[in-house]
Design a protein that fits this description.
Distance between the termini: 48 Å
Strand content: 5-15%
Structural class: alpha/beta
Helix content: 55-70%
Oligomer: single chain
Radius of gyration: 35 Å
Number of domains: 2
Bound molecules: adenosine-5'-diphosphate
């Protein structure tokens, strides 16, 4: 489950393995980067040794020539370190960018194949915000931060060895700083991780609110709800900010503890080391190099602990992503049979169905229905009767809880979903168009359709006359979801898009809005003009539609209550008569 506010539930090892897999895919960059990290470790560790030599053999021994030579070596070390840092940052940061891009693509591909049920329970805004906001946190820890962490971890370890070499007693004292850092990291780190997950979720909620408000801006404006919606977004942002504040406190506490522990150890070393020099048991150069190593070790531990906090934060934030990547859809997008001889028949065989997000309501309560190839059927019923649910099952957006849906005589569960959906075209009440050109919208889903075919489809849908009047004709962009077109124009494009597919099954969801009259004549003309007869299923809201179809199916409360021709039913069924009088709009 992709749950939100709780503590992380995924096993860190699975999570880690997936991250490691992504990094492995960019191993060339990371390996080159690591090589230069090793180079900079060498220079970093060599530096205090040279300082020691400068003081003991140059300054204190009074050898100017040696001092000059050692100073030149220092310059060399600094230059090598500069080059190594440059290459390391380049490799790690580019590697992290590539990992992030790969991860985004993977997450998006996984999203696209999720069941429709997945989208029923999530906001689009939440999904898109997460896609853009969660990945950068992981990218951050996999970039130069990772290079630094490797470097400082090695510093911490090698530095400790060199400290022992320089002065074992002093080292034992300095290492007193390690246990508090380890304890603080593990305690506070866990808190940081859980809070990071909360921050991301809260930001995703804010994103969801924003996208809902922006996409519904016309309604917001019409109801003068700008201030209320602004306040709603403010609340969401404030909530995210509060979680972020708590996370920052936890992370800062972690940094503070490491800092104090590290500095105390260095001060202790200066104090004890000073007394060792006074008693003649340590040279000044050795103490200075010891202090430089001690600072290096302290920095190493501090950096490693900060990095581990950042990693935990990234792990918390990307938990959603990795849970999503681990999800497999119940209805796979591909795979299954592709029989060549499917006809356009549709059968509902003892179908019972509840929406997964609303299990308490049985949307379809035992539907038995057979629609012959080429038949034109209207489904009527009150709102909530289950009409749209029938369409959802034909398209296999969901699987029924009981019974079978057969398309072309075959159980849809046996068929390759992507393949059989190609034979079905839908025109919905509110057709979804994309922010592309007119031609691209018409040829949506029909790969390789040429201009001629697109123009013919547009002609059938009576869309060509308004397309020609557009400034760029078929190349005109139609704006986000087709906002630059009228409702009737959008529907005509949707009809053209459906007709271009030459579907065996055509599904039309009529609207009760004012565009109906326009749509109706257009659809009927388009259907008459086709050189074949697709099986046509219409969710009908108008009397004029039901009077001219082969059969009317009357649904009520998830059951088929009547079926027959309109002129029969109007005489035989009181329920139908009432429905016609109250629900169907006469044209
Ligand atoms: P109609 O198209 O006849 O108006 P629907 O088929 O849309 O009716 O709805 C049938 C029942 O299923 C209703 O109770 C409705 O609330 C419910 N329903 C429809 N779509 C969903 C969904 N995506 N998730 C949960 N419940 C749904």
């Amino acid at each position: 489950m992709l749950n939100a506010h709780g503590a992380p539930r995924l096993l860190p090892t699975t999570h880690l393995r997936k991250i490691a897999g992504l990094v492995w895919a960019e191993r060339r960059l990371y390996l080159v980067g690591t090589f230069f990290v090793v180079v900079s470790i060498g220079t970093g560790l060599g530096y205090p040794q040279v300082v020691r030599l400068i003081i003991d053999q140059g300054v204190q021994a009074g050898h100017l020539h040696q001092l000059n030579q050692l100073a030149l070596i220092m310059v060399g070390i600094v230059l090598v370190e500069a080059v190594a840092t440059f290459v390391r940052d380049y490799c790690f940061n580019l590697g992290a960018e590539r990992v992030a891009a790969r991860l985004r693509r993977k997450v998006f591909d996984t999203l696209l194949v999720q069941d429709i049920e997945f989208f029923d329970s999530r906001d689009t805004g939440e999904i898109t915000t997460r896609l853009s906001a969660d990945v950068p946190l992981l990218q951050y820890v996999l970039g130069e931060e990772l290079g630094d962490a490797i470097r400082f971890s090695v510093f911490a370890l090698c530095g400790t060895g060199l400290l022992f070499y320089t002065s074992p007693q002093l080292t034992m004292l300095t290492l007193l700083a390690v246990p508090p850092i380890v304890i603080a990291t593990s305690m506070l780190g866990r808190r940081v991780k859980a809070l990071a997950a909360d921050v991301q979720q809260a930001q995703a909620d804010a994103g969801a609110a924003a996208s809902e408000i922006v996409s519904g801006i016309r309604t917001v404006r019409a109801f003068s709800q700008e201030a209320a919606e602004g306040a709603r977004y403010d609340r969401e942002v404030a909530r995210a900010l509060e979680f972020a504040r708590r996370k920052i406190v936890a992370a800062a506490e972690l940094g503070g503890v490491s800092f104090i522990a590290g500095e105390c150890a260095a001060l202790l070393a200066i104090w004890i080391g000073g007394s060792l020099i006074v008693t003649g048991r340590l040279t000044t150069g050795a103490l200075i190099s010891f202090i430089l190593y001690a600072l290096l070790v302290a920095r190493g531990f501090r950096n490693a602990s900060r990095f581990s906090a950042e990693s935990l934060r990234a792990a918390g934030a990307t938990q959603w992503i990795f849970e999503l990547l681990g999800r497999t859809a119940h209805i796979p997008p591909e795979g299954g049979e592709k029989p060549a001889d499917l006809d356009g028949s549709i059968v509902f065989d003892a179908i019972r169905f509840r929406y997964p997000t609303r299990p308490e309501v049985e949307a379809l309560k035992g539907i038995d229905l057979r629609i012959e190839p080429g038949e034109v059927v209207a489904v009527v019923g009150r709102s909530g009767a289950g009409k749209s649910t029938l369409l959802n099952l034909i398209l296999r957006f969901y699987d029924p809880n009981e019974g079978r849906v057969l398309v072309g005589g075959r159980d849809v569960r046996e068929l390759d979903p992507t393949w059989f959906r190609r034979d079905i075209a839908t025109v919905l009440q509110e057709p979804t168009l994309f922010s592309r050109s007119v031609a691209e919208n018409i040829s949506y889903g029909v790969r390789g359709a040429d201009d001629q075919q697109i123009a013919v489809a547009a002609g059938l849908a009576c869309a060509d006359e308004f397309i020609h009047r557009l400034p760029g004709g078929y190349a005109t962009p139609i704006g986000d979801r087709g906002v630059q077109l009228s409702g009737g124009q959008r529907q005509r494009l949707a009809i053209a898009r459906a007709v271009l597919r030459r579907p065996k099954i055509l599904v039309l969801d009529e609207a009760t809005s004012a565009l109906d009259a326009e749509l109706e004549s257009v659809v009927q003309e388009a259907l008459r003009a086709l050189d074949y007869r697709p099986t046509t299923l219409i969710i009908a809201h108008r009397l004029s539609t039901v009077t001219c179809v082969d059969r009317v199916i009357v649904l009520d409360g998830g059951r088929v209550v009547e079926a027959g021709r309109h002129d029969q039913l109007i005489h035989t069924s009181t329920f139908y008569r009432q429905l016609v009088q109250t629900q169907l709009v006469a044209q």
